[in-house]
Design a protein that fits this description.
The chain is built from six helices and twelve strands. The protein is of the alpha/beta class and about 300 residues long. The model is unreliable at about 1-25 and about 30-35 (pLDDT under 50).
Amino acid sequence: MSRIWNVVVSRASCAPPDPLVKSTQPCYDYAVSTDNERTPLILITNDDGIASPGLRAATRAVLPLGDVLVVAPSRQWSGAGRSLPHGSSGTVARRQWTISGQSVCAYEVDGSPAAAVLHGLVELSSRRPVLLVSGINYGENVGADITISGTVGAALEGAARGLPAIAVSLQTPKETHTQPSDDVDFGAAVHVTRLLAELLLDITLPLDVDVLKVDVPATATPETPWRLTRVSRHVYYMPMPPQREDLSDPVRIDYEPHPRPEETERDSDIYALAVDRVISVSPLSYDLTSRVGRGVLEDLLRDSKDL
């Protein structure tokens, strides 16, 4: 890369050796490069919770690129989207991690992934982050289901606050989606996360590209190519009828991946992941306005006899 950050002032230690520290004061000092610029601050979050190995993998991916600030939900929040539920307490606790031999401060928030991003931005960072990384998620987030994803929702929250963002998900067995496993290999996901994060530190994304949504096949290696894709209009996770005897029995609607390649757009995230087995990179915008010509739609609506 054309820009290399050379840190000459080291990060401050997270100090207390206790792994859970109640103080929420930012636990690093400014670091500066040889040309007297601050090193980039990268905010990291997820929806699988502070204990997820995927969160540590994301941190490991970007740790060589600058200072990191980890702010994640205290528990599993898969399926939270960009929600900010009122029932969350918003309490924050600090944890001390050691990753790749370096001390890293991580904060756990009693709140959704989007709430964790907000706490990171307005309360826990001593300077403005320049990049948000959300993930690495257990389970792919593709097609029309992506608005359900807390991983994508956190990235959109950061993007709405002006941060370029990456949402990274790894295809994993369904049983790991809410019960993260240490047996998952994050090698390919770490590689592409570092690659794209390094790129976003050097470039400015075009207007209307607010998030890069990245989906890594389970079979991927660091040599697996990536492809720029669109988000499929098809649903990927099919809901399953609940198995219960009485409607008063508590049960969640289950789901199963169902890619349907014969119906899926060949330039889509689903097709790249499930058929061609390449890494999908989909540009997202938080502008949810339909791309239909407004003149065409207005003519259609105004010509309707019912309006």
